[in-house]
Structures are given as C-alpha cells and as structure tokens.
C-alpha cells in the first residue's frame, strides 16, 4: 500500500503552486473509462428491443444523443477538477476569450444549437427521407454539429444542422406512409384527350409499387404552345427510390403511346422569310 501511495503521489510536473501527479492522471483515466462503460450500458439498455419500429427507434436515438452529450460535458468537468483545475474560475477568467472564440466560431455554434433543437424536437429522425436543396437524402445519423445522410446515388453527405433548421426542408417520412407523386407529359394537339388520360392512368396502375388503395388520376393541365400538357398523379410508399419508379412508369407510357400512335411533340419554330 505504501508503494502504491508513493507511486500515486509521484509528481510529474509542477509550475509555481500547481503540480500534476500520477494519481490525478489515473483519476482522469478512471473517469473516462467509467463514462465509456456507462454510455455503453445505457445504449445497450435503450436499444435492447430490436423489434421496435423506425419511429420509436428515432425517438430513442435522439434521447440517447442528448444524454450522451450531457454526460460527456459533466465528465469533462470532473476530469478538469481531478487535474486541479477549477472549472468555475476557468470560465470566469476566460470570459473575454470565450467571446472572441464565439464570434469566430459563430457558424459552428449555430450548427451545435441546431443539433440540440433537432435532437430535442425530434422533427427529424433516423431513416427519415428529406428533400434538401433539391437533393433527396435518407438520414443515417444526427450529430451535435452535423448530420449524415445517404442520397439516391449511395453517396454519404455531411449536412450542417443549421441547414436543416433554417431552410425549407421537405420530410417525406414525417406523417403519412403513402405520398403522392406526379409525372408530367406533353402530347400532340391531334390526340384524343380522353384516350390519353386512360393510358396514363393504366400505365401508373401497372407498376407494382403504386398503391391500389388510392386513386390514380390523370389531368389535362394546360394548353401549351405546341402541345397539350398532361399530368398523372398516384400514391406510393416508395420514397427514397421514387426516381426509379417514375422512370419505370414513363417507359410504360412511352411504349403505350408508340403502340397507339400518340405523338409526343418537340418545340418547333417557324421562320418566315419575306422577299421584296
């Protein structure tokens, strides 16, 4: 015991009244390990039920992230105290420095505050499909400063949290299991309008991912300069890969148009040359 006490009291560094001992470093290491083990046990406890749905899993994840950050902040404070650094005096003494750092890292703090808002409000959850700046992204992780998502090209995207909280974001997964999609198409003025509407609705219904419980509807939207403009609307639970589904339906429409001699016009310009 005397040997152990001597080792722990061994002074590694000293400056004026401050001294760093092996015992302090051991205490810091112990606090770190206890924190890691406590968080691991907490995570295992919260996520032990693997049969929960994505909605509940997202709520649990948000709760765990908030608790994790609080525990690490407290743990870091205990580590500083173990090293003989009084946290209250440190904060008071560096107030001016913190103001300068705050101005320099304003955007970072904005992202951090946005992360806290996302985790506490739970308006965005894991596996939610968002449309941000015209890009469709499936959220994989919500962090304190940034969130990570996967776009439709399977590319991982790092998103600053402030971009989600301050911009207009469409959450395709927020409320309904079914979402309505639309496909626009232009047809020649020589077509039979009712027949075109029938083909558009049939083409959408043929796709396996289009809901049969919701109405498929085709509309004549407008009279264009060189075409009649139609739109077909349908419901589907496929959100993240909806571009592929739309492509399949367009291919069916194109095939049916060819079979029934329905023309898709292209923009034309007539030039009249006057001769004297």
From TrEMBL:
Entry's transmembrane regions: 20-42, 63-81, 87-105
Domain named Mechanosensitive ion channel transmembrane helices 2/3: residues: 65-106
Localization, UniProt: Cell membrane
Membrane recorded as keyword: yes
Molecular functions per Gene Ontology: mechanosensitive monoatomic ion channel activity
Its membrane topology: Multi-pass membrane protein
Mechanosensitive ion channel MscS domain: residues covered: 108-174
GO cellular component: plasma membrane
Keyword terms, alphabetized: Cell membrane, Membrane, Transmembrane, Transmembrane helix
Superkingdom to which the source organism belongs: Bacteria
Stored Gene3D superfamilies: 1.10.287.1260, 2.30.30.60, 3.30.70.100
Mechanosensitive ion channel MscS C-terminal domain span: 182-264
InterPro entries on file: LSM_dom_sf, MS_channel_1st, MS_channel_C, MscS-like_channel, MscS_beta-dom_sf, MscS_channel_2nd, MscS_channel_C_sf, MscS_channel_TM-2
PANTHER family documented for this protein: MECHANOSENSITIVE CHANNEL MSCK, POTASSIUM CHANNEL RELATED
Family under the similarity heading: Belongs to the MscS (TC 1.A.23) family.
Name by which UniProt lists this protein: Mechanosensitive ion channel
Source species: Polaribacter sejongensis
């Amino acid at each position: 015991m005397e040997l152990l006490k001597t080792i722990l009291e061994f002074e590694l560094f000293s400056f004026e009244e401050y001294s760093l001992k092996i015992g302090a470093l051991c205490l810091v290491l112990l606090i770190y390990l206890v924190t890691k083990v406590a968080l691991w046990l907490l995570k295992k406890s919260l996520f032990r039920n693997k049969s929960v749905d994505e909605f509940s899993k997202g709520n649990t994840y948000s709760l765990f992230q908030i608790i994790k950050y609080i525990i690490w902040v407290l743990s870091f404070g205990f580590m500083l105290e173990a090293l003989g650094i009084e946290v209250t005096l440190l904060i008071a003494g560096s107030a001016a420095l913190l103001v300068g750092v705050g101005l320099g890292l304003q955007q970072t703090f904005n992202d951090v505050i946005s992360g806290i808002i996302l985790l506490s409000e739970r308006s965005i959850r894991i596996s939610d499909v968002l449309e941000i700046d015209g890009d469709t992204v499936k959220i994989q992780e919500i962090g304190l400063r940034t969130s990570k998502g996967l776009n439709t090209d399977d590319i991982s995207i790092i998103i600053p949290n402030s971009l989600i909280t301050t911009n207009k974001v469409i959450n395709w997964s927020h409320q309904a299991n079914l979402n309505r999609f639309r496909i626009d198409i232009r047809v020649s003025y020589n077509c039979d309008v009712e027949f075109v509407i029938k083909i558009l609705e049939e083409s959408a219904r043929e796709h396996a991912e289009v809901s049969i419980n919701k109405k498929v509807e085709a509309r004549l939207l407008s009279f264009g300069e060189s075409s009649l403009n139609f739109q077909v609307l349908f419901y589907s639970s496929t959100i993240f890969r909806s571009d592929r589904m739309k492509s399949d339906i367009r291919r069916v429409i194109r095939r049916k148009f060819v079979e029934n001699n329905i023309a898709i016009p292209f923009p034309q310009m007539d030039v009249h040359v006057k001769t004297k």
